[in-house]
Amino acid sequence: MIPVTPLDTERPSTLATEISERLNAAIREHLLSAFAPDNTKRLRSFSAPEVAELLGVSGQFMRKVHAEGTVPEPQDIRSGRRHYTAQEILNAREILERSSRTKGRYVPQRSPDEKLQVWQLMNFKGGSSKSTSTIHLAHYFALRGYRVLVVDLDPQGSLTSMCGISPEIEFDGLTIYDAIRYDDPVDMAEVVRETYFPGLSIAPSRLILSEFETESAVHSNPDQPFFTRIRNALAQVEEDFDLVLLDSPPQLGFLTIAGMAAASSLIVPLTPSMLDVSSTAQFLELAGAYMGVIEDAGASLQYDHFKFLITRDEPTDVPSQQLTSFMRALFQDRVMSATALKSTAISDATMLKQSIYEVVRSEMTRATYDRAKGSMDAVGNEVERMIQQSWGRS
Ligand SMILES: Nc1ncnc2c1ncn2[C@@H]1O[C@H](COP(=O)(O)OP(=O)(O)OP(=O)(O)O)[C@@H](O)[C@H]1O
Ligand SMILES: [Mg+2]
């Protein structure tokens, strides 16, 4: 236990520091016991039916390619059941792609003439499910064989910790701040690191990233103004990825705006409540004004897709359904058809810093799990179709 001594309440600065120290010590203890013995996050294995679904083939087809020796058996076979690591699934993709007549069927990565997809999730309304949507999209695409980079633009680092890096404690490595700072920035390739989730890399964040807000306010660097800095950083690693997802902080500051200048598509996650809808209206009014300002300063903004995503959707809640219908009536297909359902499966998973894709189905009420996963899959699938469209594939 951490000794609980009286806090110094005399000076606010000391008080805040003491509270922070105590919290950090508690987090360290909690995390150590939660992630014992080695503190690292690992991805679960996937069952044969899950793998067949991910690859878009039948179970029979998988058994055949294993029997023929085309695709090696997974390492882990228990009581006749196959359990695949995500890396084994990616390897199977590579092998099947080589003998497939339809190019891109198993490895859907972009060709050099298909442009990098940069999707930003943004809304200054806190808790509108930006980070949850980002991590679910990231896992959806990585499991389907895309090369995904998430960029955590929030100094709070929620996305960073969902990727198995704890910005609160041990992590003192390079962050996205180091690639976009004004003073001697480092190459983005040094910042990007692979995660425990095959196919997913991250440009992490921690508190230092908030310096970008302060520095951008005082800096006038006409060669490389603030709104070019994320775009330029991404250009340095562009060849390694198909899709970049930018998670934004709950404010419309320099980080969010620099993200907007780097993005090729935008998603505004929105919870269907009156407060959230009116706050989103204000957000977009401001965002529109800022877009105008940076366009006047030389940024060229162009979005293939600019969509609302209804999050924490509750089909049985009448007022929220009315608001959703209202948004659809006003904006038609600018509101994505798929919605992210509100589900205890999602909130329970995120408590453990996991997405629904990391949870084992048998560890939850099946109906709850299926509903939540079905909804996240539908959101991913709709974004995937938009991406394919941007690449001119459909
Ligand atoms: N579909 C969902 N069902 C249930 N709970 C959800 C769902 N989506 C998000 N939540 C919960 O809502 C909370 C806020 O979500 P999240 O952190 O993704 O929002 P955010 O927009 O990133 O917040 P912030 O503005 O602070 O960055 C989290 O506790 C998360 O578990
Ligand atoms: Mg967030």
Keywords:
394 residues, alpha/beta, Multidrug-efflux Transporter Regulator, Chain: A, Domain 2, Rossmann fold, 2 domains, seven-stranded mixed sheet, three-stranded antiparallel sheet, 15 helices, 10 strands, 45% helix, 11% strand, globular, binds adenosine-5'-triphosphate, binds magnesium ion
Q: What best-fitting shape do the alpha-carbon axes yield?
A: globular
CATH 2nd-level architecture of the largest domain:
3-Layer(aba) Sandwich
Q: Characterize the main sheet.
A: 7 strands, mixed
Q: What is the CATH C-level name of the largest domain?
A: Alpha Beta
As for the CATH topology of the largest domain, it is Rossmann fold
Question: Describe it for me?
Answer:
This protein has 394 residues and is an alpha/beta fold. It has 2 domains: 46-98, Multidrug-efflux Transporter Regulator, Chain: A, Domain 2; 117-390, Rossmann fold (3-Layer(aba) Sandwich). The chain is built from 15 helices and 10 strands. It has helices at residues 12-34, 48-55, 59-68, 86-98, 130-143, 158-162, 176-180, 188-191, 211-218, 229-235, 254-262, 274-296, 318-331, 344-351, 366-390, and strands at residues 46-47, 76-78, 81-84, 117-121, 148-152, 193-194, 200-203, 243-247, 265-270, 305-310. The strands form 2 sheets. A 7-stranded mixed beta sheet has the order 6-7-5-8-4-9-10, sandwiched between helices. A 3-stranded antiparallel beta sheet has the order 1-3-2. A hairpin with a 2-residue loop joins strand 2 (76-78) and strand 3. The longest helix is centred in the last third of the chain and has 25 residues, at 366-390. It is globular, with a radius of gyration of 22 Å. The model has no long low-confidence stretch (mean pLDDT 91). Adenosine-5'-triphosphate (ATP) is lined by residues 126-132, 154, 158, 250, 311-312, 340-343, 346-347, 350. The site of magnesium ion (MG) has 5 residues, from helix 5.
